[in-house]
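Practice problem: predict the structure.
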Amino acid sequence: MVKGVRFLNLRDAGHPAELAEAYNRQGADELVLLDISASREGRATLMETVNQVASRLFIPLTVGGGVRTLDDARRLLSSGADKVSVNTAAVESPGLVEEIASRFGSQAVVVAIDARRKVVNSTTPQGGASHRPPKPAWTVTTHGGSRPTALDAFEWAERVESLGAGEILLTSMDTDGVQTGFDCELTAAVAGRVRIPVIASGGAGEPRHFAEVFLEGHADAALAASIFHFGQYSLPDLKSYLRQEGIPVRVI
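Answer:
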């Protein structure tokens, strides 16, 4: 298991199966296992690792990274995953989302969207520069955030929903690993465009960041790694805080 900043400068965070078992005991609602270098290296997800992790869990497991075909999805689901996450292959072959959803159901398909913010300058009707603030926009990246595309993140979210995706795992490449808070503006914008659950990812550094992304970002779930992997906060402490803030959570 590794953790980095914007998927770079990775450092060791422990053994996947041991961490999975620990988070299961602490009361995690779901576990997401992403093989972040699989697409860059052109290989399949490590099935043995998936099997080891799944065997220690009693909560849903989502696995992604290197899923390029229906057979890849079948192997992961057969190895113990409850859901498969697709990103790069979905962008390159959108029909893959529809194939997996048709074969295994929408509940088994999570489309991961790694979005990077860009600034779009406003113009006047005559084509001149506008004095209005720049309009924020986000584009989709692939291959572990290393390759930009021309896809608008909002339009892509709507399209994958129409193709049968059951959830969207939305990662802000601008905030990933920096622990300054989720990108609530991005999350709220995507959540407002789709009807399926949106999982916010990238930027969690303290409990209030989770409250913000639920209340301001309208996220259905929030994913974090660093603050748990390196012992900054525990899941029970986080859930206790969220309950105090009036946010419903499952407590064991």
